[in-house]
Amino acid sequence: MMQDKMISEKANEPLLSIRDLVCHFPVRSGLMRRQVGAVQAVDNISFSVAQGEGLGIVGESGCGKSTLINTILQLVPANSGNIIYDGKDVRSMSRSQLRHWRREVQMVFQNPFASLDPRMTIGQIVEEPLVVGKSGLNRNERLKRVIETLEMVGADSRQIDRYPHQLSGGQRQRVGIARALVLRPKLLVLDEPVSALDVSVQAQVLNLLERLRHDLGLTTIFIGHDLSVVSYVSDRIAVMYLGRIVEIGTREEVFKSPKHPYTQALLSAVPSVKKNNGQQRVRLKGDPPNPANPPSGCRFHTRCSYATELCSQSEPKLVVGSEHAAACHFK
Ligand code: SF4
Interhelix angle for 122-132 vs 169-181, to 10°? Predict the structure, then answer.
């Protein structure tokens, strides 16, 4: 059994591997703006995403998931750690290697109302990455690619000369997805891509993303605060709390047998899950602590119903590499 697992892991080499990634923001005070602390937005995070796999990262607002993505995408500098993409260390890439890498890794943003330039037509918005990314395609080839990509995401290619304000929220997000796919990336990062949309449109966009993931063999990282939404397009789920991953496992494992009390609390807020397994609602106590001054020991102990003295003194570790792991002393 163990050997089978090792063989399948080897066959499924990671496209992206994050090791001990740290991103702290200095907190300054006084006339001299001396550093008096640090917001531990991303604190020693490690995980891998295999080729073609969908990883979901879920957590409350402020848990560090957006900073984690920005750090991986080199939009925010990391303090330490490794970001290995297709066997290469992204943090030590040259400018030209980084330019090439950015073509393979694209992002879909949360708010299609803000992320599309209102002065550009739909055609120009989707074409722009081909021009900026030096795709080598001529004008006609670019137009053909733009139309193909709009059709791929179910957008009406006759809208190519329209402006974003003339489209509905769902149509705009399809344009945002087309823009991210036009360079044919290998890794697509989705930052809460449906949270700004009406509930009725959310399901359509989630179905589209799941279809594209399978049809194009895309590797995806989907971040969000709603476990049921994130799990819809994810094979594995990582749960983040206060700058750390506290649980990671397959979608089925996390849903059927959540190990960490924080995951249990997130899950019990999903109505369909409560109905299925009859679990009592697990309520979170209080607000998340300040990430500039996280609690000692287990960072969750101030809100955990099962906390003991040990929890406030000793920090539970997440065993990286095991299939379903949780950072809790009692799991
Ligand atoms: Fe709760 Fe303690 Fe487990 Fe942390 S280590 S999740 S405080 S039981």
Answer: 20
Residue 244, ligand 1, Cβ within 6 A: no
Alpha carbon distances (Å) from 276 to 92, 266, 272: 48, 15, 6
The answer to whether 218 and 211 are in contact (CB under 8 A) is no
What does 76-119 look like in DSSP terms, one character per residue? S--SEEEEEETTEEGGG--HHHHHHHHHHEEEE-S-HHHHS-TT
Query: Quick check: CB of 327 below 6 Å from ligand 1?
Result: no
- Partnered with residue 244 across adjacent β-strands are 241
For residue 128, what are its two tokens? Answer: 């722009």
CA of 166 to the centre of ligand 1 (A): 50
Output the residue whose Cα is nearest ligand 1's atom 3. Answer: 328
Arithmetic mean of pLDDT, 184-208: 93
Q: Cβ(300) to ligand 1 under 6 A?
A: yes
Calculate the average pLDDT of the chain.
Answer: 90
Task: Enumerate residues 6+ apart whose C-beta is below 8 A from 68.
Answer: 21, 23, 41, 42, 45, 57, 223, 240
Query: Which of 246, 247, 301, 331 best tests ligand 1's pocket when mutated (most atoms within 8 Å of CB)?
Result: 301
DSSP H helix total and E strand total for the chain: 13, 11
Q: Amino acid identity, residue 32? A: M
Return the percent helix, strand and coil in the chain, to nearest 5.
40, 25, 35
Q: Which pTM does this prediction carry? A: 0.90
Q: What is the distance between the alpha carbons of residues 160 and 123, in angstroms, rounded to a whole number?
A: 5
pLDDT per residue as tens digits for the range 238-256: 999 999 999 999 999 999 9
Tell me which residue has its CA closest to atom 7 in ligand 1: 301
